[in-house]
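fold-stage: in
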Amino acid sequence: MNQVEPNGIGRIIRDHLVSDHHELERIVRDLVAAFDKGVPEDLVSSWTRFETTLVRHMGAEERFVLPLFERGHATVAAEIRADHLEFRQRLAEMRSDLGLHFGRLPSAQRFLARLAEHSAREDRVLYSWIASHRGGVDGEALLRALGPQR
């Protein structure tokens, strides 16, 4: 990896995680558009991208960031982990709804609103911590786990 100033890798990591949140927002817009068009293939394609990106993102946070963050912020880290568990459960429920062409759109919209709140909190609390404290986060492994920045 290129030489970066102290905490520079922390900012790079933060920017990559924030970029993932923006990518998820773009995919959600595609998902809603696919639902509105009523094209099942587009809906399944957008859903698959959404689920894959979200699960990969949460997994990287849980493996590389939260174990260190929780040392000084146990309550917030536990809340983020609980959110991730809730999101995984909702993803499983919504995946089965895909067969019904997302028949419960209001439920999906509530989930997406909840996810947006969670993302804003992570941006504000967790990612600012990463940028300033980095403290032991394996930046290169985390960036590999997140995949290419979009």
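fold-stage: in (second)
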Amino acid sequence: MGLVSTLSSLSSFRVSCYDQIQNSYGIYSVNNQLGPAYYLVLVATYFKVVDILAHLIVPVPVQGYFGSPMDDGEEGDEAGSVFLQEMS
């Protein structure tokens, strides 16, 4: 969701603000450029894609679903046992 909203905001800024700036005001000329902040936000936004892919690729340990990492799985892990039996 953040990826889409940030890309939408950057696109809206470019179309509504940056592209609408005139190149000259009377006798003054203006050199329009997108600054480093715009490009850094754009790069950070694209890193969100890498983050999404990493979340999809990296598996979550089964024990992480049902207890703490220090849990040995013997006491109070009925839900985990049922889940593992259903998966087998």
